[in-house]
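Annotated sample (chain length 465).
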Amino acid sequence: MLLFHFVRRFTTSALAMLLSGVMAVVPLAQAAGAHPEAGPEMSGAWRGVIAGKVPEGTTRVTPGLSADRLVQRVLQRNPSIEAMQAAADAASARIESAGALDDPMVSYVVAPNTAGGPRQGLNQNAQISQKFPWPGTLALRSRMAAAEAESADQQVADLRLRLAALARSVYAQWYYVHRALAINAENTTLVTHLRAVAETAYATGQAPQQDVLQAEVELVRLSNQEIELRRLRHTLRAKINGLQNLDPESDVPAPYDLPREIPLSTEAALQDAALAHYPLLQSLDARIAASSDRVDLAHKNYLPNVTLLAGYNSLMDLPAKRLTVGVAINIPFGGNHRGEVSEANARLHESEAKLADVRNQLLSDLAQTRATAVQAVATIQLYDDKLLPVIRLNMQAAEADYSGGSGTGDFLKLITAQQQYLTAELELARARADFFIQLASLNYQTGGSIWPHLADSRTFKGSTP
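Output written by the structure step:
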């Protein structure tokens, strides 16, 4: 099967995490394609058919959507970003209150039975107090809240990068669905021409009826592939609209081509970028800082808080005794505070262990992703430099063997040569998609180092085609 014989999964674990559920929608080999160009190396019927018209009812692809533009739209419209950003804003808002003193306390007491008495009148007792935690406590609380807010901000950055990687992967599949339909249409045109040649040869007794039937079988197969590809295109359109928070049936512009040349950094450079910019590592670093401050705060709970008081008590018989000032100190006991310290230390250990685990997994995923990208580059070079030129020669030989359409040659070889050429174009395009999707994964793993202009800003000014 020309379009469905080469199904292959991408095995990078980080990418699988990013694209959960998406790769099942449109396997790349089912949606890939590129069309051969008529050139000097083709002659006769082959060049005429490949350069010919697309069958009636088939619309050629009109480009209108780039990968960057889709990323922009997803980052602007996806509601999950707004939800997580609101949580991060809430964490930032807690910084100010964390470093503030508790509200002062005011009390007022009266002796109602003294109202209207002959000597002092209504007896009253008013008091105001303010609690002051042990020195350094407020600074620790504020610093811990700031670290928690930083951790939340980094989680927002991680979500944005994951959505960007997902958008680029979906874009690659969207591109392939359109290219596969174009290949299907060109293949149909070619086989229709070959059937006409076979019918002419059969009518004149120069070829067996089997040649005509072989072409008919190929056309039916291509029709079935077209039905499946159109279903896949419909499914993928719903996925793209879902990422943008749009109605599933909304129109999605046709794609531009995939970028052909994007430099691939060395593994060492990618590792340095990942360890420096990967948002989840930075989020865990901030969480560790917050956990460390929480441990210090738990220890500070062993130290007393000081409460200053001032009041006026008219119950005192002498005016000099009525104004009072004082201080109150709590007496910390170890039982409840030991549990706080143990819990804080356990949370700190949890964050440190998780950081080590995420770091190791990141470096492993990074190595796998880059290895897949390197393989894709090698495949592209192999097909461009060796395989496609050989297949073109094989097509010319098959055409010559069929005597320019006279029907004296082997029709099956002619059909097979045509299928081999389109299969090679499909595999070459698939390798390009492999490389682009691995780059999207590398961009996520390195904190947006490959496409940094879309990694930082929350909104985008202007427009990208």
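Annotation: The domain at 13-99+159-226+252-288+352-454 is CATH 1.20.1600 (Outer membrane efflux proteins (OEP)).
Annotation: The radius of gyration is 36 Å.
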